[in-house]
What we know:
The chain has helices spanning about 1-25, 30-50, 60-85, 85-110, 115-130, 145-165, 175-195, 205-230, 230-240, 240-255, 260-275. It has about 280 residues and is mostly helical. The protein is globular.
Amino acid sequence: MIALLLALGSSLAYGCADFLGGLGARRAHVLRTVMIAAPASLTVELLLWPFLGASFAPATLAWGAASGVASAVAFALLYRTLAIGPMNVLSPVTALVSAMLPVGVGLTQGERLGPAGLIGLPLALAAVVLVSAGHGAGGARPSRTALLLALGAGAAIALQLVCLHQAPPDSGVGPLITGRAVSSAVTLLAAGAMYRRLGPGRPAYATAAGAGVLDSVANLLFLLAARSGDLAVVAVITALYPAGTVLLARGVLAERVHRGQLIGLGTAAVAVSLLALA
């Protein structure tokens, strides 16, 4: 139950971070937003170090660095995917792949689910698709390139989560600090290489920093959840992060929540209840 609650908190934090990051990226090139968000996220993790501890054994550094590279790749592929579109088709593909791969890893490593879990897990996967799909998901058809990018983005997100899970359980926030330092370095190098293409727009500093802080909180909650529960369950619950984005878009931007998304939210509630029983 503790792992489930932590995973729900991680999902909500990821959804809020995506919402703020999306708002920030409207005013300037997305890399300009990340150049603010990444250091803010790293700062939070460094502040947590004295309270939660951190070790930097070779295994911690290796898995943390791998998660950081995967995070940077996931970010690049995800935004390229959504730029090509259609978002309402490609976003569910990315979310579903990001959930299914850690489920496969968890089950391969010997995790077992009871009857309630065997029902709740596929329901949660269905909820991921429904919640992240916008209106008219059956309309425009994505190109082969867009689908491949969506699959790659989902795989990179999943790889980031799996790498964090593989880090030694006594490493504290060491994997998070290492991963964020690596992903920040990769992002800054990319921004430097593309400096002339970033445009003159200034990012929304407070919004971008808020996205970074929330992303750091989400990573921490996922790490704690994965250490105290099954990766298969934690990854699926975390992948429900589009629900937070949808609800914030409804409350802040007055965007319409479509019927399919409402069904997805209800399905998610049922799935979480079943997984709690499991």
